[in-house]
Amino acid sequence: MRKIFVKTQNVKNFIALINSLQNKPDGISKMALVYGEPGLGKSRTALWLAAQNDAIYIRSTNLMTGRWFLEELVDELGEIPRYWTSDLFKQCVNKLLERPQMIIIDEIDYLASDQKTIETIRDIHDKTNVPIIFVGMTLAQKKLQRYKHLYDRLSDIVQFKSFSVIDVQEIISQLCEVEVTEPAVSIIHNQANRFRQIVRIINRLEAVAKTNNIELIDENILKEILKNESRQDFKDNKGVKQVLHR
After folding, report:
1. How far is CA 204 from CA 1, 225, 235, 238, in A?
2. What is the pLDDT of residues 9-20, one digit of tens each?
3. CB 125, CB 152: distance < 8 Å
4. What is the pTM of this model?
5. What is the CATH number of the domain that holds 171?
6. Per the structure, how many domains does the chain have?
7. Residues 6+ apart with CB under 8 A from 120
8. Closest CA relative to residue 118, chosen from 151, 88, 92
9. pLDDT score for 177
10. How far is 75 from 206, CA to CA, in rounded Å?
11. How far apart are CA 147 and CA 142, in angstroms?
């Protein structure tokens, strides 16, 4: 499988959001939300875009507190975290004023129930005007709506949606090292709507193609692979061989 970052429509929308935030004039809110169901590549995209834009990436955890978040942010800014929470906050603000950087906070759902932490993040934005992007699950938008002062500052909201046939075609054509026909791609689109699922199918296709010296996966071979994947004849490729010799 090729090691390529595929720009699906969701990724393109995320990129457009970042460009929009970066081009906003001073005094205009630069906060945004990216949300959607799991398995669509939100975290993977956030990490990739953080690297591309020299942004700070922080992944929230279930036990994270406001102080813990500030310590993580100070550390990412290259400073040694101080003891007092007020000093941590000043470190974040001063460093971001000195060298502005975009902040991407992943798994924001974990912090959404902590009003003090959410308001602290809003305060950091208001004092520094650096772009801050929240990345969360399906209910992230509703959870953040409880904080009116923060939600009103979300100038851009992007929802990661299920992959279209074009997205799946793009993923397969760029990652898979064996050619797959359009009818076969349509079947994969109906079978898998998560990135990990598609990658798993690609791995199967490449393994079967290598074993059977196949250069093209059509819908008949794909159906046989999917049908027999949990049976012994899949492991031995017997079902595929029968299709090839029909």
Report:
1. 11, 8, 10, 14
2. 999 999 999 999
3. no
4. 0.86
5. 1.10.8
6. 2
7. 66, 69, 70, 89
8. 151
9. 92
10. 42
11. 10
Same-domain check for residues 110 and 148 = yes
- Same-domain check for residues 153 and 134: yes
Tell me if 34 is assigned to some domain: yes
Last residue of a domain, one of 135, 160, 185: 160
Can you tell me the distance from the alpha carbon of 175 to that of 126, in angstroms, rounded to the nearest whole number? Answer: 42
What's the CA gap between 25 and 131, in Å, rounded? 11
Instruction: Say whether pLDDT at 27 is over 90.
Output: no
**Residue reference for tokens 């349509």:** 186
> Where do the H-state alpha helices sit in the chain?
9-22, 42-52, 66-76, 85-98, 115-128, 140-144, 148-151, 165-175, 182-191, 195-212, 219-228, 232-235, 238-244
Which of 134, 160, 186 is at the close of a domain? 160
| Distance between first and last Cα of the chain | 29
Give me the mean pLDDT over the 16-42 stretch.
92
Find the domain containing 37 and state its range.
9-160
Place of tokens 């902040």: 103
DSSP 164: P
Please check whether residue 90 lies inside any domain of the structure.
yes
Rounded Cα distance between 159 and 216, Å, is 35
